[in-house]
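Chain entry —
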Amino acid sequence: MQNKSEFKIVLIGPEIPGNTGSIGRTCVALNLELILIEPIAFDLSQKAVRRAGLDYWQHVKIKIYQSFDQFIFQEQPNPQNLFFFSRWSKKNYHEAGFIKNCYLVFGSESKGINEEITDKFNHRFFKIPMKSDIIRSLNLANAATAVALEAQRQIEFEHVRY
C-alpha cells in the first residue's frame, strides 16, 4: 500500500462520535488522511469514537484545525482540489472529476456547511442523489464512504471515463 494519501477527507464541526469513528475506519481502509475542523462536539478519546473505529482508530492519520480558515492557510489547497458535499447541490458526486491530492469536505451532521463557505465555494458543491422524498439526508459516515470510494475509483482509473 502507498504511504501517501491520494486524497483526504475533511469534516467541519463533526457532532457524532460514531460517525467520525466510522469515517476514520474508512480512512484507514483506503489509506487516507482525516482532517477535523473544530468545533468538535465530543472528545476524540470517547468510547463511541473508538468503538466505531474499532481497533483501527490508532492507525488513523489525523490532523485537527481550529477553523476552516486555518485549514486553508495550512493546507493551501488549490480551489479546484476542494470538493464540498451538500444535499442542496444540483451536481451529482459522480460528475465531480476527482483528482489526486483533492479534499472531500463534509459539514456537520445537523448544520451541514456554513453559508460563508457555501457562498465562497458554491461552484465546488456536489450531492449524493436520493430517490426518496422521505429522507432528508444520508448518514454522514455512509455519505463520506460512498464519495471516498467513487473518488478512489475515478483517481485510480482516471484514463477510463464512462
Notes: The mean pLDDT is 89. The first strand starts at residue 7 and ends at 12. The radius of gyration is 15 Å.
